[in-house]
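FW: tagging you since you asked about this chain on Friday. Here's the raw sequence from the shared folder, copied in full. Didn't touch anything.
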Amino acid sequence: MANRYTYDDFQKAMQSSGLGGQFSDADLKLAQQNPDAGMSILKYKQDYMNAATDEARALANLGAEGIRSSYGGYTGGQRGENFYLDPLSPKDFQSSAAPTYKNNYADTISGLLDKQLGYGSYSYGEAQPEYNNRYDATIQDLLDQIVNRKDFSYDPENDQLYSQYRKQYTREGQRATQDALGAAAAASGGIPSSYAVNAAAQAGDYYASQMTDKIPELYQLAYNKYMNDYNMKLSDLGAVQGAEQSDYDKFLNEMQQYNTNRAFDYQAWMDEYNRINNDLQTASGLEQLDYTKYLNDLNQYNTDRSFNYGQLLDEVNNQTARRSEAMNKALTAAELGDNSFLNDLGINTDNNPTDYERRYQLAQLAAQYGDYSGLRELGINPDAADRSYSGGDTTPRETETTGLDANRIAAIKAAYGGTVLTPEEWSQLLTNNPSITAADLTAAGFTQSSEKTDDRVKDMTSLGYDEDEGIFVWNGKRYNSPEALAKALNDAGLSEAEEAEIKRKLSAYGFDS
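HL: got it, structure written out here
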């Protein structure tokens, strides 16, 4: 909860009040740490200065002591100017804040993980080369011509060259025949003769044989032409296939470059993915190192806290042992009638059972002679006791007749703030303590009253204090701080006599101002 005041507010108010010289170093330190507590102490000091009675000053001191004890763990003594540490207890243990973990790589890891999960599948942006054989039709045509070529055959009649030779040799034969006949006629004087005919026939036959002799030559020429044509087709096929191979080699080169480029691009794609993954692993590793360091720090913190708490418990146990030793010595002295050691420990001995029994015996003796003031001071209803005293020595003795010893009577009075109990308190007391009867309570001087009007002065001034627990018991109620008790007393509208009695008991408990 945020403070209502600041330390500057406190300093201004303290200087304005003129009470700055009455603040101890401990009070000033508390005010600096908790300005609201400082302002409360200042208010109680002002109430103390303005108080007209000792009772009012005691209440103001009680309130200030409550603030000191609750927020500073100390008290200031009768005038609030000293410094007394409250006894240590486990609740006083304070430890530094535990280390906290902050993931410095959360955004980095999240971003890299998103990149990795959203990286997608590989896709190459360039189109793959395609092979288009532009010579396929030509190759198929040439191949068909070569494979399906007709076998070689020669017919002179179909040979134009032979036809030309035949015309030529026929013409030359006719000319030779005519020349032979002309020569023979000239020789014979124009007279036909068998010689002329034979000579003409021989000349014609010569050219006819020459023409026949040309057929093998023409055959060879035709065959050569057939083979040349075949070879040319083969050559054409080879040339076209060479051109096609050149195109295909170019395609293969393009395909190889395409594959090289695609492989390079894929490797770059994978390298980027691996880089993201490596960065993610690195960031995760660094985050794990930080978390391991945090766990180590937390473990050391827990170890140190346990060690320090153990030290505190050891100190609490040591102080408890010292207090127990002092208490035992004080109790031993008290059994011998010396209550000074108990008083030095801050324990009120007004209701000491041993002293109470002594006072009770004296009060009983006085009551036999009609003086009931001693019984009233002890919180015993004299009306109930008078019935016993008037009949002789039939007084209900706390340690004998009533069934309640002095210790239990004192405890009941402290618990319920006197001898007047409400019906609810009466019933609760009997229910929780089966060994106690209503007759025991009545014999011990306890009565019932729905409003607790009887013996009001005793009820309103009956005050108990448990130093070990810091609990006040007043008017049948328990208060866990001086501040709470002070408020209740202020609201109660006590008379002067009641305030005087309360002041006396507070003084006995060490709360004088």
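FW: Residues 99 and 298 are 6 Å apart (CA to CA).
HL: agreed, and The first strand starts at residue 74 and ends at 75.
FW: great, closing this out.
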